[in-house]
Amino acid sequence: MSCWLRAAILLSAVGVCDVPVCAQAVAETMNLRKLVDSGHAEEVLQQIDTVRARATQNSKMPDVLSRMEGLADYALNRLKQANEAFAKALQQDPADAESAQMRGLTLFRLGRPAEAIPLLEGSRTSAKSKADPNYVLGLCYMDTRRYDDARRAFAAQYGFAAESAPAYLVAARMLLRREYLPISRGFADKALELDPTLPLAHELLGEIALVGNHTEEAIAELEKERAHNPLEGMVYDRLGDAYIRAGKYDEAQHSLQEAVLLEPNATGPLILLGKTMLKKNDALGASTFLERARTMDPANSMTHSLLGQAYRAMGRSEDASRELATAQQLQAASEPKLDGLH
């Protein structure tokens, strides 16, 4: 006998519903869950009114249908409707941890992080989740300027001690992604204070300096990282970028060639090498690197744009026009569309 059928019999015993009706409602709810989890959200929404009508024949029958509706709406990116459905589910059952967690995630995606925080805090131990609650909590904390709480949330996600150097560094990385540069730098500095040999701490400080257009500072930090961490390809890539911005093209070429050796499947160093060789008026050398990058990733508009410039410098006008047109098409395809505007 399934646990769901045993639950139906128990509910019948206490007078909540008749076993046949209760068992049917439970079975239909289970089917809806399977449909949601297997990616058939539209079908769930089509069936849910019929199932709800059967389930509410007994007013005391526990109702998880609002949660199913919320999950289906969320899967279809109907965030406003999902929020309303999860809110209704929580009215029916305030202890519904999955609905609380999913409503928190939905509110975060709706740009309402302050409202999401208490829901995510109270449901982070739930076994069912569409995203790591500590990760989403950390993002909510950042967006509400609770930076130390964000650090603790990210530390919990990775299993770091909250006051450790890795905890400060991972928080600094997340803060940089949000372009909270002063706070990110402060956390990275704290990470180095706690552990002066922490891998990638100087690399992150270099990235922060690059975003702030402090090129010489970026070079100094990245050179420190290279000394501590000589086999990390990303360091040579970022260092090459910094040297390009500083107009030191020979140094950039050398660093980027080292990046290619360490990361042969990465297109970033190849594209930067193409850019470097164009700066050095070596169109043939640029085209060699850029053609390789194009083969590896034909959908990168920057590659086609730079390759068009290289071909033009080489007098290959037809090839240049083709590459520049491709770059424009790829850029246009990647631009966000405003639906509903005519």
Task: Give a written overview of the molecule.
The structure is a single chain. The chain is mainly α. Among the domains are: 1-63, no CATH class; 269-330, Tetratricopeptide repeat domain (Serine Threonine Protein Phosphatase 5, Tetratricopeptide repeat). Helices cover 74% and strands 0% of the residues. It contains 19 helices and no strands. It has helices at residues 3-13, 19-37, 41-55, 65-75, 79-92, 97-109, 113-122, 133-143, 147-158, 165-177, 181-194, 201-211, 215-228, 233-245, 249-262, 268-279, 283-296, 301-313, 317-334. Helix 4 runs parallel beside helix 6. The longest helix is centred in the first third of the chain and has 19 residues, at 19-37.
Please sum up the structure shown:
The protein has helices at 3-13, 19-37, 41-55, 65-75, 79-92, 97-109, 113-122, 133-143, 147-158, 165-177, 181-194, 201-211, 215-228, 233-245, 249-262, 268-279, 283-296, 301-313, 317-334. By secondary structure, it is mainly α.
Descriptors for this entry?
single chain; about 350 residues; mainly alpha; Serine Threonine Protein Phosphatase 5, Tetratricopeptide repeat; about 0% strand; disordered N terminus; disordered C terminus
Order of helices and strands: HHHHHHHHHHHHHHHHHHH
Tally of helical segments: 19
Q: Report strand %.
A: under 5%
Shape: flat
Alpha carbon gyration radius: 27 Å
Mean pLDDT: 86
Distance between the termini: 58 Å
Which parts are unreliable, with pLDDT below 50 for 5 consecutive residues or more?
1-16, 338-342
User: What is the number of strand segments?
Assistant: 0
> Percent of residues in helical segments?
over 70%
Alpha-beta classification: mainly alpha
Describe the biggest sheet?
A: none
